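> run fold Acetoin utilization protein AcuC
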Amino acid sequence: MGLPGSVVWDSALLGYDLGGEHPLHPIRLELTVRLASALGVLDGVELLVPEEATDEEIERIHDAGYLAAVREAPTVGWDVGHGLGTSDNPVFDNMHSASARVVGSSLLAARQIASGTTKRAVSIAGGLHHAMRDHAHGFCVYNDLAVAISWLLDNGFERIAYVDTDVHHGDGVQAAFYDDPRVLTISLHQNPLTLFPGTGFADETGGPQALGSAVNVALPPLTGDRAWLRAFNAVVPSLLEAFQPQLLVSQCGVDTHEEDPLASLSLSVDGHRAIYRTVRELAERYAGGNWLAAGGGGYALLRVVPRSWTHLIATVLDRDVAPDSTLPNEWTRFVDRIAPTAELPATMTDNKSVDFEPWDGEDGDRVDSVIKETRRAVFPLHGLDPDDPRD
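> ok
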């Protein structure tokens, strides 16, 4: 019997490199694949090698003039506009081809599912969810997941749910489908009053033709695993049951971790593992088992991202890694060579409990208030009672 999922990866994806001391360093991807391999998660798995997406494919979401600017930027650099050449999105060599390959990675994952080759696929280099139609935004040049969702809508899928668990609002994907009732976008993120990009409030609920299609859960800083999971379970399953998607797309940024240097939520690797297992179960329950997973943010490059995304790959493949698994010596030795002063954890867990009390409809703390605000904004638009925890 074959594996339930496919993994898209090639070292060429490391070419998406914003350079210097930029926090989105491609080493996090290499370390993830090395750790997954060392733990046996990828044993016998044929890694699928993506090609660069074509201009026609990228132009499903992005303007042709923007693509031209991305191509031109490495030779002009200083006056290209479109959000390029900033500290967030510095120009780098082969920027178009590297960005197009990331899009190709998520498109290949989408094609695996659409063709029936597999029910699940993971594009670990994908998840560049901030890129907008005509400009780069938040470390993201092209929006691979928006392109993949657009392609899926033309290739057999009529209802797609997008669930974004990055610490930052999934603004680019929301913007791409804000007035499209075929796509339900759900984003759980740190309160936009306290963090980039400053959007993702509960009252952003979709355009005139798609009211209720955008859902935003804006969590207060320092929200930990238990409260985060309570909020997720108070909002997401009910909406998925009402929407009945044919496929679930998830952006799995791990910058929600308490050690992440760019944000202020307080999740653990154990919380991330619980998220992936929950999303897998929801895909089985509400989306026919179809699940396309992608990476995203995550800037604790050595201690967090490789462990969390190894759990993601393992979850997609039904090869769940036990939390108390020891980090393999071959992996820690490699990290020692590139970062000899790094203090690494010993195992695949942060030893945090992920047990939580389900939301009971009461207004117990700040997270409960956020749950109520989101439910009251969108649940009635789906025929659900926002104040009844059974809905």
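The radius of gyration is 20 Å.
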